[in-house]
Design goal:
heterodimer; A: 8 helices; B: 2 domains; six-stranded mixed β-sheet; two-stranded antiparallel sheet; extended; membrane (chain B); Spore_II_P (chain B)
Chain lengths: ~180, ~300
């Protein structure tokens, strides 16, 4: 009977330990706090439902493989609607005092967001897992269910693409200013 | 343009990195509720399982005593009298002790590496082969104690060097021998690091992991252990030619480890297969070893 009583304790323990990391992965992936919170909740409900079947291995990479699936499903659903619209950032800008510095900051955030949202989802996942969540190459390969060398290659390509986009974008802004 | 770290800091600054407190506590509550619901469901399942089990028992008992089932059962038992059930085997005194000093040794097929020095695995390792040997012995009516102590973890936790392996694996062995005077043979299961062609043999079209018997020349009872290893080897090659690579006596002058073989006569270190074998091939050979051990026990 023990295992039945434990499940409530266990899921809360797991949730407290991992919700922040999962949320951070999802906010960077989706760019929307609302979506990230909804998805985080969904992820932990899936974790709870599958907990009795989980018996060996690294629980963190297991949770993140669920999070990655949730993120990609979400991306597919929203592909043609407006998650990459600029509503999220406009809203913030309009509610705060617009000093020049602030405007510049907002502008930069917008650039970063646009650059990330233009990465294809598999690249986006690898960049966030490695760069933001700081998973090792091995853990990332477990989460993405691919080889370690694919993680390395994808990570470098994605970073290169991201930097190129950011460079290009900043130059454009400068160009416009002139 | 910027370093990777700057880039990630930029990304981190772009988004609100903490969810709202409200969300955190709401989700926690939702999970608690759902977990309780799950509990209730499993309890119902468990209860129905228990009640149907009870009903079956009552039925069997009444059949046994009131409807003459007793005779049927006794007849059945007599015809299958020689097959010992696993439960009765576990009640017998253990005759064999199996352990793995290098318990994380694994195989290329189970790990993501091609380097024998890195082929270790937390769960898919040589311990499974020891477990298979123990199970196989039990199926033959021989009770065995299989020690699954994670030796490597103990070494790491205490910052012991690799050379202390056998002093760590000695402790559970020593304690078990003290408490079980019935134990007649001790096997320390390893796998080799050699190439596949050296550690594999095809018999009637099926691949098996080859075995080598290692005996330390430095323990006081090395003569007895060598004799024991040779008996195993001879018996094995009689039945399965080329499956054994032979008996190796290690003698590194005064530095030689005893592999704990001084604790009991009839102790031997087994290298079953190598890093390039599969678990299936390992299991096949473990099954054969169980058969050979049974033969030797019956002889003596």
């Amino acid at each position: 009977m023990n295992s039945f009583d434990d499940i409530e304790v266990r899921i809360i323990e797991i949730y407290n330990q991992h919700y922040l990391d999962v949320y951070r992965f999802l906010i960077c992936f989706t760019g929307s706090q609302n979506d990230a919170e909804d998805l985080t909740q969904e992820v932990f409900i899936r974790v709870l439902n599958n907990l009795p079947n989980f018996n060996a291995g690294n629980i963190k990479t297991w949770i993140f493989s669920i999070a990655k699936h949730a993120a990609i499903d979400h991306y597919r659903k929203k592909k043609y609607s407006s998650i990459f619209g600029e509503g999220f950032f406009k809203r913030i800008v309009s509610t705060e005092k617009e000093t020049l510095e602030l405007v510049e900051q907002k502008e930069l955030k917008k650039l970063v967001h646009t650059a990330i949202s233009k990465l294809k989802p598999s690249f986006r996942a690898v960049v966030i897992l490695r760069g933001i969540n700081e998973f090792s190459i091995k853990e990332t390969s477990e989460i993405l269910k691919c080889s370690e060398s694919k993680v390395k290659v994808d990570y470098h390509r994605a970073l290169k693409e991201l930097k190129k986009k950011l460079d290009l974008n900043t130059e454009e802004v400068m160009g416009n200013a002139n | 343009m910027q370093t990777d770290k700057e880039l990630f800091d930029l990304i981190k600054n772009t988004y609100p990195l903490n969810p709202s407190e409200d969300f955190v506590s709401t989700t926690s509550n939702i999970l608690k509720k759902r977990a309780r619901k799950l509990n209730r469901k499993s309890r119902i399942k468990y209860l129905s399982f228990v009640t149907s089990g009870l009903a079956l028992c009552t039925f069997a008992f009444s059949w046994f005593f009131f409807y003459g089932g007793k005779d049927d059962v006794l007849n059945n038992l007599n015809t299958h009298g020689e097959e010992k059930s696993l439960i009765s085997v576990a009640e017998q005194e253990p005759l064999i002790y199996i352990y793995q000093s290098h318990n994380l040794e694994s195989f290329f097929t189970e790990t993501q590496t091609k380097d024998a020095n890195e082929a270790f695995h937390e769960t898919q390792n040589i311990t499974l082969v020891g477990e298979r040997l123990s199970q196989s012995l039990k199926e033959r009516g021989i009770n065995a104690i299989h020690d699954k102590t994670n030796i490597t973890e103990i070494l790491n936790e205490n910052n012991f060097s690799f050379s202390e392996t056998y002093s760590v694996s000695r402790e559970p062995l020593n304690a078990t021998l003290e408490n079980n005077k019935s134990i007649k043979m001790v096997f320390d299961i390893h796998r080799d690091s050699r190439k596949r062609k050296d550690t594999t043999v095809k018999l009637k079209g099926i691949d098996y992991s080859k075995v080598v018997f290692l005996v330390s020349g430095s323990s006081s009872n090395s003569k007895e252990n060598i004799k024991f290893a040779e008996r195993l080897h001879n018996r094995m090659v009689e039945k399965y030619p080329r499956l054994s690579r032979g008996v190796i006596v290690t003698d590194n002058q005064d530095k030689q480890n005893t592999y704990n073989q001084d604790l009991l006569d009839n102790s031997v270190l087994l290298e079953i297969g190598g890093v390039e074998n599969t678990l299936q091939e390992e299991y096949r050979t473990a099954d054969i070893l169980a058969e050979i051990i049974q033969d030797i026990l019956n002889e003596s």
